[in-house]
Give the backbone structure.
Amino acid sequence: MSWFNIVRHMSSTPYLSILLPVRNEGLNLRIMIKILGAVLEIPYEIVVVCDSQEDESIPVVKSMQAQYPQVRLVINTLGRGVINAVKAGVNAAEGKYVLIFAADEVGPVLAIRNMLDLAEAGCDFVSCTRYAYGGRRLGGSWVGGVLSRAANWLFYHISGCAFTDATTGIKLFTKPAFEKLNLQANPVGWAVAFEMAIKAQLAGLKLGEVPITSIDRLYGGESTFRLGSWLREYLHWFWWGTRELRRAPARKPPVMRKANVSAEGMGFIAKLSR
Ligand SMILES: Nc1nc2c(ncn2[C@@H]2O[C@H](COP(=O)(O)OP(=O)(O)O)[C@@H](O)[C@H]2O)c(=O)[nH]1
Ligand SMILES: [Mg+2]
């Protein structure tokens, strides 16, 4: 019996807490809850984090809770933006592992299994990559895609960062690992994900990386990407990260990687397509 099945049979408390920070997500959120319900074979909870009581995602969550009792709604009162939504979600999470996920991203669902495998193998902090080891990026903003790919390539080669994709939002960790990060980014886009990758390495956490095929906004909705305001915040972390990582004793520390989709993983796909 695989460890996945052992855990599934042993526990009714969540093994994995999936955080979905959302701002006015309707269809994407509804579909993501269904996909996760179809794919996950472990005890999990989904913590949907909104920044206000008026958010359009709230009726979606409430309408699905009868069928999906694992879905919880958290209203982030720490301040607006993804960084505060993540902090509020981690505070509320009850699982052994916490996974930051995006409601409008479909592809990375199939990487969750590999991320958990790395966590079980000893990684404190597992990130995803769209830019190496078979990872890919499809859809989303063209400008955003080119900038993200170029910035991550440069950052990897200049700073000594261990991750080939430091800015992806999909990240898995334990609560004690998260507490070591002391996150301070301004609430601009997903800049906090970049800060997390840098600080996880600086904190000496055991790192893991899993390739994903990122498929952004397959079902529409509007991206929050705004070039002008984002550039400043991302540049800040680019320079700060380069300076601090170059000073750190270990440049490019070891990263555990897991790329293959197992035979059981292919079973997930079959289950979804039925
Ligand atoms: N709670 C919260 N969620 C947000 C915020 N900004 C974006 N999100 C959510 O984060 C996810 C990814 O954001 P998105 O705009 O698609 O970013 P992009 O993929 O980088 O263009 C979406 O589900 C958004 O609803 C925010 O300020 N607060
Ligand atoms: Mg998106």
Confidence is low (pLDDT under 50) at residues 265-274. The chain is about 40% helix and 15% strand. The radius of gyration is 18 Å.
